[in-house]
Design a protein that fits this description.
By secondary structure, the chain is of the alpha+beta class. It has one domain: 2-Layer Sandwich (Nucleotidyltransferase, domain 5), CATH 3.30.420. It contains 4 helices and 4 strands; from the N terminus they run αβββααβα. It has a 4-stranded mixed beta sheet, with helices on one face. A hairpin with a 4-residue loop joins strand 1 and strand 2. The longest helix has 21 residues. It is globular and about 45 Å long.
């Protein structure tokens, strides 16, 4: 059983990983940053150009296109988020992105989003 202290430690560990990643990863106009957030109920992803501080494309499982769709698993849901985000990014003229996992481990849903973006035609 997870205690409250254990939950706080996990949050602190993720925050440390997130800051360690962000020291090295930055989005540019040529290669914007693809940020993934994995919540308990939803998956969110956006593509950000850090040089101007602007979000180029964003998508969530709460978005209109995905809200009513039924998925067999969270992995399938993550892959679909990635594919649809890649389509939005291509409309903006983005071909390559830098992947920012936001301190989450690169497996499961986070990996499924990255795989979906690759299937959608972006270079990660």
């Amino acid at each position: 059983m997870a205690t409250k202290l254990h939950t706080i430690d996990k949050a602190k560990a993720r925050a440390r990983r997130r800051h360690r990643i962000r020291k090295r990863v930055a989005g540019t106009a040529d290669r914007p940053r693809l940020v993934v957030y994995r919540g308990l109920r939803n998956i969110e992803a956006q593509i950000i150009d850090d040089s101007v501080g602007k979000s180029l494309a964003s998508l969530s499982t709460r978005s209109a296109g995905l809200r009513d769709m039924k998925f067999e698993s969270r992995l399938a849901q993550g892959k679909e988020v990635g594919k649809m985000l890649a389509e939005k990014a291509k409309e903006q003229g983005v071909e390559k992105v830098v992947f920012d996992r936001s301190g989450f481990l690169y497996h499961g849903v986070v990996k499924a989003v990255a795989d979906g973006v690759r299937e959608g035609g972006l270079q990660v």
